[in-house]
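Hey, resending since the last one bounced:
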Amino acid sequence: MLNWFLVCFFGQMGLVWGQEAGLEIDSGFIVTFPLKSFVLTSTYGPRKHPVTGEGAKFHYGIDLRAFYEPVYSVMDGEVVNVGYGPVIGNYLRIKSGDFILTYGHLSLALVAPGQQVHVGEAVAISGKSGRVTGPHLHFGVNYAGQAVNPLRFLSELNNNTKH
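The structure tokens again:
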């Protein structure tokens, strides 16, 4: 059994032991990261908007470096929405229990509303749709209607997979 740990360094997030993005436990994969590689380019919380330059705008997710690559479902769930917004661009939302996971700035959704998805399943291709400076993945997490820090969420998932 392999345990995977997130490590923070110089404003980036990385995976220990390379490219595999899944967390494995005895019963199999129960959670995966949204991309095979994990480099944080913008954090959750207040920030100066990279396109408009507006200060103190709250960023309700994280941005991850991604250049037109597969995006994976972090948890089992149901696709509740696939759409387009002028800021988030092409996006999809997956509901898993009380969690809603948002994947944005996509070039292509590979799933449809009502579809059941499984952890580690490719659900989209990252892109640069919406108001962006370049291709990346926006990943957001809501729990019971409240936005939560996706890095904290992923860290808790990691902690809950340890024996």
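The first helix runs from residue 150 to 161.

Sorry for the duplicate.
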